[in-house]
Specification:
This protein is an alpha/beta fold. It has seven helices and eleven strands. It has helices at 27-43, 64-72, 87-96, 111-127, 135-140, 144-151, 180-185, and strands at 2-6, 15-20, 48-53, 81-83, 156-159, 162-165, 205-208, 217-218, 222-224, 236-241, 244-249. A hairpin with a 3-residue loop joins β8 and β9. The longest helix has 17 residues, at 27-43.
Length: 250
């Protein structure tokens, strides 16, 4: 575990949040990280804990099917979990023709080519279906319970002063008016912003993935958790509790 440091905000008393960055098909490392989370929770019991996965479970890495199966089950027994939708899940579900309408803002007019052009073929291989099989065969390769899990992925989740979302927010826009597309896709001007992120939300801290960095980024208004697991970096989980933040890596 990386040494704890002062967090940019304070969680309500008695609550701990584990937040995991972009997995991208790294199923073995996700299993290892879940084991580390379980061990940490056993060594340091908390009155209440929550596990949040920040999206981008599929594509690029070798075993997206394994990641989906793990997350759709009970990733860390004893700790409730929430899974957010990343832009890669949005692309995948749009290509499969089963993206919920509430998540469809900004989808490519050619969703099939868009997903395959963003490493969707790697996910299909892990599902055991050929690229030439066609959309119906691709969709049928996903067990119904796992497909339902993907369709039920959330856009965001808030805990006290922390907002968990895949990519970020559009600076200067009230939370209620934030675009679906931005919350799954934005990079700039979110990443370089230095003030309050949302109108009427002073002190809000966004915990996000989507944009990889060499290490976890802990700033006054955002915490970046994507440390590039699929490109040679770590798969990271930040631990938020009271006024502290720490990390586990696999």
């Amino acid at each position: 575990m990386i040494k704890e440091v002062l967090a940019p905000a304070v969680l309500p008393a008695g609550l701990r949040v584990y937040a995991v960055g972009d997995v991208h098909g790294c199923a073995d490392r996700l299993a290892t990280l879940h084991g580390l989370i379980a061990a940490h929770a056993a060594r340091h019991p908390a009155p209440a804990a929550l596990l949040i996965h920040l999206g981008d479970y599929v594509d690029r890495g070798p075993n997206s099917a394994g990641v989906i199966a793990r997350l759709a089950d009970d990733p860390v027994p004893g700790i409730p979990s929430i899974a957010l939708m990343g832009n890669h899940e949005q692309m995948m579900l749009a290509a499969l023709g089963c993206l919920p309408a509430a998540m469809a803002e900004g989808v490519s007019p050619d969703p099939l080519s868009h997903w395959i052009g963003n490493n969707g073929g790697v996910t299909l291989r892990s599902l055991g279906v050929p690229l030439a099989g066609g959309v119906a065969a691709w969709r049928a390769a996903i067990p119904p319970a796992q497909l339902a899990f993907l369709q039920a992925l959330r856009l965001q989740h808030r805990v006290g002063p922390y907002l968990f979302v895949h990519a970020g927010l559009r600076p200067g826009v009230p939370l209620a008016e934030q675009a679906v597309h931005d919350r799954m896709w934005i990079r700039q001007p979110f990443l370089d912003w230095t003030g309050d992120l949302a109108v009427g939300e002073p002190g809000l801290v966004v915990v996000h993935g989507h944009t990889p960095a060499r290490t976890v980024e802990i700033l006054p208004h955002r915490i970046g958790v994507d440390t590039g697991a699929v490109v040679g970096g770590d798969l990271t989980c930040v631990i938020l509790e009271a006024d502290r933040v720490g990390c586990l890596t696999a």
